[in-house]
Design a protein that fits this description.
- The protein is α+β, with helices and mostly antiparallel strands.
- Helices cover 23% and strands 34% of the residues.
- It has 2 domains: 237 residues, Rossmann fold (3-Layer(aba) Sandwich); 109 residues, no CATH class.
- The protein has 8 helices and 23 strands.
- The longest helix is centred in the middle third of the chain and has 18 residues.
- It comes from Rhodovulum bhavnagarense.
- InterPro entries: AAA+_ATPase, ABC_transporter-like_ATP-bd, ABC_transpr_FbpC, ABC_transpr_MalK/UgpC-like, Mo/tungstate-bd_C_term_dom, NA-bd_OB-fold, OB_MalK-like, P-loop_NTPase.
Length: 358
């Protein structure tokens, strides 16, 4: 296991980058703690796989260093970093049995036969493949092969880090939850440093201790699932985390008041004068329909999704979403919306602004 330090790290695929826009991975300075589980979350093209490949040694950064504990591995080969990596598509030895595939990393390192047998049995149980241990991998389905890849990545207990690059893409949906739970259990039991790349917020939020949200080559927030939901540090985090995502509405801020088209919204905190693009962000869960309180809103449609209702509405010309209880009656008298002042975030140029006690 290792603490991973990203020191002044940046990468461009161009031979002579001249400006920030030429970098696929913009400057990163972070320390990821030994033994924690991290998820790199973001849309396609945001830089998460680039960063994972730099950590694994498959890619040399244009600038900066990678340290495992206090050892600089920036120019070390992948084999020298003592990591295990599981890729998006399964990589298995078709001519070997499942048992032989799982045992291969341990045999390569000269582990004893008794330890290999015990460890293979443990991992096979974890990935649900005990009954096919002596079958050749060639005839197995894609999701079964990916489970072998996952198992082979997890079979070693002495690695510095386990890296997963969208490993559940080819897994049947009903198996995804089970495998995520098993990965979480493995982390709890053995304490490996784990880094898991995904574009799926459910995977990230259920797997990780800390979620690393990436956007346009930057890390825009590192936090617990609760941090990302309650206090998105960037409007992208608010939009990307949650279903539906955070409502972002242009506003004018004066002290402990926000104004949307001249209509006043109370804030819990006070703010000094803000410049540039100023907006408020409110989660749909913290907006409430009312017949008498709040500001005018026009309901366009109501979607019943089982556990709750999603109200699609127009608020001073802006599309917003409101989450209502499953049993809430949304009649024609519900023409106003109220926001919880404690849950209204303020953003300037997309970044969260921390106000002071009002």
């Amino acid at each position: 296991m290792a603490r991973i330090t990203l020191d002044n790290l940046a990468h461009s695929y161009l031979p002579d980058p001249r400006g920030e826009d030429d970098y696929a991975l913009k400057q990163l300075d972070h320390v990821w703690q030994d033994g924690e589980a991290y998820a790199l979350l973001g849309a396609s093209g945001c830089g998460k796989s680039t960063l994972l490949n730099i950590i694994s040694g498959l890619l040399q950064p244009s600038r900066g260093r990678i340290l495992f504990d206090d050892f600089d591995v920036t120019h070390a080969a992948t084999a020298e970093r003592n990591i295990a990596q599981v890729f998006q598509f399964p990589v298995v030895y078709d001519t070997m049995t499942v048992r032989q595939n799982l045992a291969f990393p341990l045999k390569n390192r000269g582990a004893s036969a008794s330890y290999i047998a015990q460890r293979v049995q443990t991992i096979a149980a974890m990935i649900g493949m005990e009954s096919v241990l002596d079958r050749k991998a060639r005839g197995l389905t894609a999701d079964a092969k990916q489970k072998i890849s996952l198992g082979r990545g997890m079979v070693r207990e002495d690695v510095n880090a386990l890296l997963f690059d969208e490993p559940l893409t080819v897994i049947d949906p009903h198996m995804k939850w089970e495998l995520r739970t098993q990965l979480k259990s493995l982390h709890r039991d053995f304490g490996h440093t784990m880094i898991y790349v995904t574009h799926d917020q459910t995977e990230a939020l259920t797997f990780a201790d800390k979620v690393v949200v990436m956007h346009d080559g930057r890390v825009v927030q590192i936090g617990t699932p609760e941090d990302l939901f309650e206090r998105p540090a960037h409007t992208f985090v608010g939009y990307f985390i949650g279903s539906p995502g955070m409502n972002v509405i242009p506003a004018k801020i004066e002290g402990a008041r926000a104004y949307v088209n001249g209509a006043e919204i109370a804030l819990e905190r006070g703010y000094t004068a803000l410049s540039g693009k100023v907006e408020i962000g409110v989660r749909p869960e913290f907006a409430r329909l009312s017949a008498t309180e709040g500001l005018p809103v026009r309901i366009r449609r109501v979607e019943d999704v089982g556990r709750h209702k999603i109200v699609r509405a127009e608020f001073f010309g802006h599309d917003i979403n409101i989450v209502a209880a499953e049993d809430e009656n949304i009649g024609s008298d519900k023409t106003r919306v109220a926001f919880d002042p404690a849950r209204v975030n303020v953003y300037a140029n997309d970044w969260l602004v921390e106000g002071s006690a009002a």
